[in-house]
């Protein structure tokens, strides 16, 4: 239950709004196949899951930095 109430970000709010909007549209226009899509978006928003639930979409920050050996950090006490 705590996971439902915490960590709301923009993507989660967009999924919630899309789910509610599709649900209202499905019921108002009697297009019930859209109701399944609305339930899908609402479940993603409430459970905080997405298509990248395994974390495979995030890029790793531990990858080698391209210019680490060329660009040196600035040290003001070490003047040339």
UniProtKB/TrEMBL annotation:
This is DUF2892 domain-containing protein. The chain crosses the membrane at residues 12-28, 34-58. The lineage of its organism: Bacteria, Pseudomonadati, Bacteroidota, Bacteroidia, Bacteroidales. Keywords: Membrane, Transmembrane, Transmembrane helix. It comes from the Bacteria. It comes from Bacteroides pyogenes.
């Amino acid at each position: 239950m705590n996971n439902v109430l915490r960590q709301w970000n923009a993507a989660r709010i967009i999924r919630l709004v899309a789910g509610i909007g599709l649900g209202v549209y499905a019921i108002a226009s009697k297009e019930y196949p859209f109701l399944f899509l609305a339930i899908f978006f609402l479940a993603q928003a409430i459970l905080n899951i997405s298509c990248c639930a395994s974390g495979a979409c995030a890029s790793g920050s531990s990858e080698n930095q391209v210019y680490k050996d060329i660009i040196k950090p600035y040290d003001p006490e070490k003047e040339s």
